Amino acid sequence: MSGNTEDIKPVNCTIKPPVYLQIGDTKTDPAHSGVCVVDVTLPFGKPVNIEEITFKNYYTAYVTVRLLRRSPGQETPAKWSTALRDLPLMDNPHTERGSQDYFSIHRTQMQVEPDHVASVRLILRQPSSAWLTFSLEDVKIYPHMEPDPEKEVSDWLSDLTLVDQHPDLEGLPDPQTVSSSIQQMWALTEVMQTNQTTASIGRFDVDGCYDINLLSLM
Fold this sequence. Notes:
about 220 residues, alpha+beta, 6-stranded antiparallel sheet, 3-stranded antiparallel sheet, 3 helices, about 15% helix, about 30% strand
């Protein structure tokens, strides 16, 4: 079974006994045709969106999956559709390999969307006369569950690496000192604008450089 159904419970369904198709008169010639049908009835009035079908093989060589689907919100009768045809379960119908293995059929393998399903029909084939009977055991149907968006976001956030909220300030000047200097520069600018005259002041430079003492007199 695939990992996404590990926490999902199978649907309560009724699995009918296998029905073997007979060749000729069933009373005088009981030989099997090599075809068997297993019907799985889902809860009445509760169509299921199928995620996966699992089972244990018992000498079945090929399986075909047919679905009885209903159209939601419509009064039209349900229709049968072939979701998967002749999936091989045994490497060779005449040998034991794969004859009693577990199998799973995921919705992505099906040729039609397995949604709004009222019944499942499994058509089994065994062309080899080496096996007197063949069927499927432990058939389970798992419903398709839509992912919870809130849970997806929560899982995504939990996978993020927490970043230190305190930035590295090593090598930078003290913020309070910088703030005090900026306030002093702002105050000096205000004083200069208040005492500004219409006379041309000119450049306060000495040998091409500004004299800090002259600037402080403004």
